[in-house]
């Protein structure tokens, strides 16, 4: 994964104006986000992710018919690895777009692998660059944490709408977001962090009044709400063990990369159910992960469909891990395996300045 434009999904301020179109601030925290991808240490972390690498490698080389003799666009090429593989699979031309100075390393890597006549590395924003032709394939590792957090799918959509041929193929072609009830020690940790923050605030209020004669207590409630959102309603990265998942997983969002719009990914709303499967357990929150699929398209399918999943795993974890959303009020379940408890949940996910805020409404039966 590299960078292609300032309009990444995690890098947005989104709002709905009277039910109208979504407003996206493409200037939010540009430097902080994109500077990360300009460093080789960050690229190395992603290139060392075997699940990620194997999925893309197999998707390309098991489906060479999509690449042989074709024009390919790599959105956010980063180190250039996907562009190089596309060329090795027989692409006629590969346009590798990268917004950061990582493009210089990508260009060197392409040359070192004797592919400079096929792969053209272009430094610039995907939204701003112009290609000399439409392409047959758009490939990108655009996925962020929990798929959309800090992702750059906005740029992929822009590239698709401008440069993909009507018969073109998206790599990956489909994506899904999953959630499942979990148990985790993060709940106690984050509650303790929140309580510590409030204790620190109360000390601050007392000291300000005693030393400077100003009563700040009127701000205690809004400060508490702010800290509650930060500690208890913001998703957290975690590498969950499968045993921490205490119920069935549910799909909360499906994306067809060939047809999805920016509005489709600005907000995720879902009603879902999950059966609690473990006796005498506590529901501490929800774990979220994603998978993507390389299926081609209905009229030009993949010869071999490949899946990349970030689900909790004992031996196949990824750098994406999972996102954990804790519940403030834990629920204790004492059930038999033949009588699962069904928990109806409404989840609302907003992405704002690299944070994802979750609102939950539960009813237990």
TrEMBL record:
Is Acetylation found in the keyword set? no
Q: What InterPro entries does UniProt report for this protein, alphabetically?
A: Arg_MeTrfase, Methyltransf_25, PRMT_dom, SAM-dependent_MTases_sf
User: Does the keyword section mention Transferase?
Assistant: yes
Q: Superkingdom of the source? A: Eukaryota
Which GO molecular function annotations are given, in alphabetical order?
A: histone methyltransferase activity; protein-arginine N-methyltransferase activity
- Report the GO terms under cellular component: nucleus
Record-annotated Methyltransferase domain positions:
72-168
Domain Protein arginine N-methyltransferase: from-to ranges: 197-326
Q: Which UniProt keywords apply?
A: Methyltransferase, S-adenosyl-L-methionine, Transferase
The UniProt entry, under Pfam families, shows:
Methyltransf_25, PRMT_C
Q: What's any GO biological process attached to this entry?
A: methylation
PANTHER family, per this entry?
A: PROTEIN ARGININE N-METHYLTRANSFERASE, PROTEIN ARGININE N-METHYLTRANSFERASE PRMT10
Protein's recorded name: Protein arginine N-methyltransferase PRMT10
Tell me the organism: Vitis rotundifolia (Muscadine grape)
